[in-house]
Design goal:
This protein is an all-alpha fold. It is built from 3 helices and no strands. Helix 1 runs antiparallel to helix 2. It starts with a helix and ends in a 7-residue tail after the last helix. The relative contact order is 0.17.
C-alpha cells in the first residue's frame, strides 16, 4: 500500500469513528425522548379537590414537562458534553487530514468499497 492509500484508509477509519460517536449521541437523545414520552401521562392535569369547577392552568403542563426534561437532560449532560467535545476534535482531525490529502470533500473509491463491504451494527 502506498502512503497516500494509507492516509485514505486512516481517513476512512477516522470517519467511521466519528459516525460511531454521532450514533452514541443520537442514542442518548432517543433515550431521553423515550423517557419523556413515557412520563407524559404522569404530567397530565392533576385533579385537586379544592380547585373543582375551575379550568386547569394551561401553562402548568408545560412547566412540569420542561422541568422533567431539564432533569433528565442534566443526568446525561456530562456524557453528552464529553461526546460532543470528542466529536468536535474528530471533525478537526478529519478536516486536517483532508487538507493534507488535498481532497477536502472526496473519498477514494477503495475506501467507499471497504465501507460498503463491512457490515454495520444495528443500534437498539
Amino acid at each position: 500500500m502506498t502512503a497516500r492509500a494509507d492516509r485514505f484508509a486512516e481517513l476512512s477509519r477516522m470517519q467511521e469513528a466519528r459516525r460511531q460517536i454521532q450514533r452514541q449521541l443520537d442514542r442518548i437523545n432517543r433515550q431521553i425522548t423515550r423517557r419523556m414520552t413515557a412520563f407524559i401521562p404522569q404530567l397530565k392535569v392533576r385533579h385537586s379537590f379544592s380547585r373543582r369547577g375551575k379550568a386547569p392552568e394551561p401553562s402548568a403542563f408545560l412547566e412540569r414537562y420542561r422541568a422533567q426534561l431539564a432533569a433528565l437532560t442534566a443526568e446525561r449532560q456530562p456524557e453528552i458534553d464529553a461526546l460532543s467535545r470528542k466529536l468536535a476534535r474528530q471533525d478537526q482531525a478529519i478536516a486536517a487530514l483532508r487538507d493534507r490529502l488535498g481532497c477536502p470533500e472526496c473519498e477514494p473509491t477503495e475506501a467507499r468499497r471497504e465501507s460498503r463491504s463491512t457490515p454495520r451494527e444495528q443500534t437498539p
